[in-house]
Amino acid sequence: MASHSDTLVVFFGATAGANGGKLGSDEREIILLVWQIVDLHEKKVGKLQRRLIKPDTLELTDQCKEDTGLTTEDLCKAEPLDNVLQQFHQCVSAEVKTLGRSSYTLCVDGPLIIRQALHPEASKKNLVLAECFYSFVDLKKEFHKCCPNAGPVKGLTLSSMLEYVCLPPVVELTAGVREVKSMVQLILHILAEPYNHKFSNFETVNYKFESGACSKTEPVDSETVIRARGLPWQSSDQDIARFFKGLNIAKGGVALCLNAQGRRNGEALVRFINSEHRDMALERHKHHMGSRYIEVYKATGEEFLKIAGGTSNEVAQFLSKENQVIIRMRGLPFTATPQDVLGFLGPESPVTDGTEGLLFVKYPDGRPTGDAFVLFACEEYAQNALKKHKQILGKRYIELFRSTAAEVQQVLNRYMSTPLISTLPPPPMVPVPVLATPPFLATGSTRDCVRLRGLPFTAAIEDILEFMGEHTIDIKPHGVHMVLNQQGRPSGDAFIQMKSADRAFMVAQKCHKKMMKDRYVEVFQCSTEEMSFVLMGGTLNRSGLSPPPCKLPCLSPTAYAAFPAPAMISTEAALYQPPLLATPRTPQPPAHSAAPALAYYSPQPHAAQLYMNMNMNYTAYYPSPPVSPSTVSYFAAPPGPVAAAVAAQAPPPIMPQPGALVRMQGLPYNAGVKDILSFFQGYQYAPDDYSSVVQMSDQARSLIQPKEWLCL
């Protein structure tokens, strides 16, 4: 509009569902529009217009029938929304022209009819709205400027505003007409003495979402951020902006979240221009994007910056070109050059600024990852590029997806962050007292173990013991090992060490495919060596054993020779070793009088093996702390003679005393040793304890040895 001061069009609408303060929260269609023109200069009003609208679904809620007085029979002969909007535009334009005015602006009682009803419905029905629907004034906010003592804007209603200025309520039974007449009466009153109000607070609706980069140092108000969950994996930032159509998203305010493998996980963080728009976005909880409903929750500014923020100058320069469509390419040959990519895309999809519109993702040492981002000047070029999805470049097929500025930041942050492993001293290493590479992994071909496969993910140690039944008495101390995946959750597997191969064979025969809860569990006999290989990333199935990568000849570390063979500890010493990571249990009397034989191995010699494991690019599993019905957790303190024997036979303690190991879980992936030591500022720890800080894969576990116990 050229000017907003000529004419106001008082505008009111109702939907087939919730109205009033919940208008648009239930995705119901608009069924009623009422409007009337007010000449701001002459202070005159035009003819009141009322139109019924036929929704696609002829169904009205009881509350709607009560509020509007309409029935489905009233709407059967009405016209659809697009026809009524055309009539509105033609009618208003003609009347404004008759008045000799050049422009007009909508005036509404709260923004919900525009932002939460009209724009979302028009977006779903692919209707093109006239320019007048992208700018409006909110009568409540204008009235609050005139009468600031009338109360907060959210608490104002038409009846309360009329009462405040001592105007009589409008006596009108027809829904919509009553509201419009009340609004017109208020407008004329605040235009006159003593208020002489000038309408100046014009709100706008963004035509389209603007992409852009976000810096980690940029302040983000937590009252403006939401988390959307359940998005289709192929959805782009423009799709998300369309879902929130009518609400103004901040520039670069859509951040699609990626999982550990760098793929979208169906979530996004969205940042709006203010808290009012954020609150309206929360009302779209479980609204639909296509056939999927989307959950909307509050989020924080820190979460948004963690996903969308970046510090790379290269990324900032790449994203500095505005109004560009971003495409992500995945699976590129490591030898691919910018010219190869440009040739692959072809002349029908020219890249913005040629090679300047390409961003190759690399590791910190400069090695290519096979990912790249490409800028296109318009949607047409991007669509032509997407047609080459899974076409061949060199000897590899290339995947192409729509992307966002936030995804560029995430991918670059993930690959360019320096891993914690690089801060460890090079081999030969100082042995690290870690139970992640478990002390029970002795090498041996005796098939005295069983593997349980297909356990319910909710299964606990107690469930396994109940499943074993009478065979529980044949389990070695520290002999039950739950296998966890990379995320630290149960994998559905467990290993159990039995007293002999015969007992293991008996368990495999009796318990195979026995039910645990609502699932049957497979039980296989195996050896300690096979168990060790599986826990280190190998596979064990009916086809045989496949060793983990670190056991392959081409990857075997030479550093193993620098470490002595593991020393065996006696049965009693092993039995009463302090359970560093095991969950404490209430002491109970021992189940057997005679202590079973047990070979327990020190964890120290496995430090080099752990170091190699962390540098291998393969999926490893992690054993839980070893427990069993006869572990130290179930025993009271050992008798005096036994304790003396244990003390005499036990090797020197693994770490200096007094001291304890502390486990940290949930560390940021880019956390370094300095970050961890800074976290423990104020506590005493040994000067050389930084060498015992270890980060293990995606679980982000850490061990440190403070001088006093810390509860984390």
From TrEMBL:
Keyword Mitochondrion among UniProt keywords: no
InterPro entries xrefs: ESRP, Nucleotide-bd_a/b_plait_sf, RBD_domain_sf, RNaseH-like_sf, RNaseH_sf, RRM_dom
Record carries keyword Nucleus: yes
Primary location group: nucleus
Gene of this entry: esrp2
SUPFAM superfamilies in UniProt: Ribonuclease H-like, RNA-binding domain, RBD
Biological-process GO terms, alphabetical: cranial skeletal system development; mRNA processing; RNA splicing
Name of this chain's protein: Epithelial splicing regulatory protein 2 isoform X2
PROSITE patterns: RRM
GO molecular function: RNA binding
Keywords noted in UniProt: mRNA processing, mRNA splicing, Nucleus, Repeat, RNA-binding
Role this protein plays: mRNA splicing factor that regulates the formation of epithelial cell-specific isoforms. Specifically regulates the expression of FGFR2-IIIb, an epithelial cell-specific isoform of fgfr2. Acts by directly binding specific sequences in mRNAs. Binds the GU-rich sequence motifs in the ISE/ISS-3, a cis-element regulatory region present in the mRNA of fgfr2.
GO cellular component: nucleus
Annotated transmembrane regions: none
Location in or out of the cell: Nucleus
CDD domains found in the cross-reference section: RRM2_ESRP2, RRM3_ESRP1_ESRP2
Family: Belongs to the ESRP family.
